[in-house]
Amino acid sequence: MKAQPITLPSGYSVFSDDIRDEIGGKKTLVGVYNNVLITNTEFPFIMPTFGLTTIIRLNPQKLPRSLKLQIYFPGDDDNHPTIESPVPIDKMSIQAEPSFSNEPDAQEVISLTMHLRLSPLQIKQAGWIKVRAIYGRKKIRLGALLIRRNLDIQSSTE
Description:
The strands form 3 sheets. The chain has a 5-stranded antiparallel sheet, with no helix packed on it. Strands 3-12-11-6-7 form a 5-stranded mixed sheet. A two-stranded antiparallel sheet has the order 4-10. It has a single domain (10-157), classed as Sandwich (Immunoglobulin-like), CATH 2.60.40. The protein contains 1 helix and 12 strands. The chain is mainly beta.
């Protein structure tokens, strides 16, 4: 059975409570969230730290001249992310994924990895943290995290 090719550009994000630098250039992600962050406090609330690791996978033959990272927080308008920043591709840690050139369905892929540590971070309301990249005229979805109040606490106080 032949493997399906990777759709490029693509990517994903890992949301965590913190990102720590380790010896040898490694990173430790502390308190990784699956797809929801549940809080026991009322909105707005402050997170002492918030980590975001984003990996963007690109075709090495079609590297963009410009790439823009957008991070939307709950309450942001669709056209106005809280964070919008150009990605300096020439200064990025670009890592070629292992080549399996003996494989009949081998595909070259470049991964750009970005670690962002926000401290402190105010969460104003329930909703989604969304990570996007602007690649040419395309908007690439790189992940989302739902933030909501603990429903058990919410229902007992209403």
